[in-house]
Design goal:
alpha+beta, 4-stranded antiparallel sheet, 3 helices, 62% helix
């Protein structure tokens, strides 16, 4: 007989629904879990069933698993047996055991802890639906509302993570662009420094040549002045000599 997956939700024994559903198809076991109310979601009134002369309210509640193992179709319904106080105590103990064995986190986000508490809540809903269908239905709706809120927060969280990643990637891309720009500017700066050094070297060479030419020009000019002074002095001496002979 096939065995159902382990769950805190109480099930009946598995039942073989159809044997050799496809002899030509060989595939591993597949599980399909369903947990829902068959009444219309907009309807808030509970259907009734007659028992003798009295009427008791019970929702059309169906829950179970269906899977194929080999070529056989198996089904396992959630138990409709009422639970006692001892069953609730055992459920709490089993929850603690599963939390420890599966090493669920005590704080923070933990999918394992959330899964186990969800199974425990489903089992409490099952028990309450048997004892009081109206209260069980309300608990079922509350559970759905909580799950929708969790899904909404999960979506917001994932959107925030995605936004953060996009911003991080954008910042990294901007950082890479800035670093490349800095590298290009540094290379350009080095090239300009090199050109400046070459121009300074040319300027220094030109300046030295100009100073050398200026010094040569000054020396030549001074020599010419000295030569003119000597010539003038010689002329003065000749004039004095001529004047002295006339006297």
């Amino acid at each position: 007989m096939a065995a159902a997956s382990k769950s805190l939700l109480k099930y009946n024994d598995p039942v073989l629904v159809n044997k050799n559903i496809n002899k030509s198809l060989k595939r591993p076991a597949r599980y399909r879990f369903t947990f829902f109310l068959l009444h219309h979601p907009q309807e808030r009134s509970l259907p009734t069933q007659k028992t003798g002369t009295s009427t008791s309210s019970t929702p059309f509640f169906h829950s179970g698993m269906q899977w194929t193992e080999g070529n056989d179709l198996w089904m396992q319904q959630v138990s409709s047996a009422a639970s006692t106080r001892e069953d609730v105590i055992k459920l709490g103990e089993l929850l603690d055991t599963e939390l420890q064995q599966r090493r669920a986190r005590e704080k923070g986000i933990c999918p394992i802890r959330r899964e186990l508490y969800s199974q425990c809540f489903d089992e409490l809903i099952r028990q309450e639906i048997i004892n009081c269908p109206e209260r069980g239905l309300l608990l079922f709706l509350i559970r759905d509302e909580i799950q929708m809120n969790i899904a909404a927060h999960k979506t917001l969280y994932e959107s925030g993570i995605a936004f953060g990643l996009r911003e991080t990637l954008r910042a990294e891309q901007g950082k890479a662009d800035t670093e490349k720009r800095i590298s290009d500017l540094e290379e350009e700066n080095e090239e300009l420094k090199k050109q400046l050094a070459e121009k300074r070297a040319k300027y220094d060479t030109a300046e030295k040549r100009a100073i050398g030419r200026q010094q040569l020009e000054e020396k030549r000019h001074n020599d010419e002045i000295q030569a003119l002074k000597r010539t003038i002095q010689q002329l003065k001496d000749q004039i004095k000599a001529i004047l002295a002979l006339k006297e």
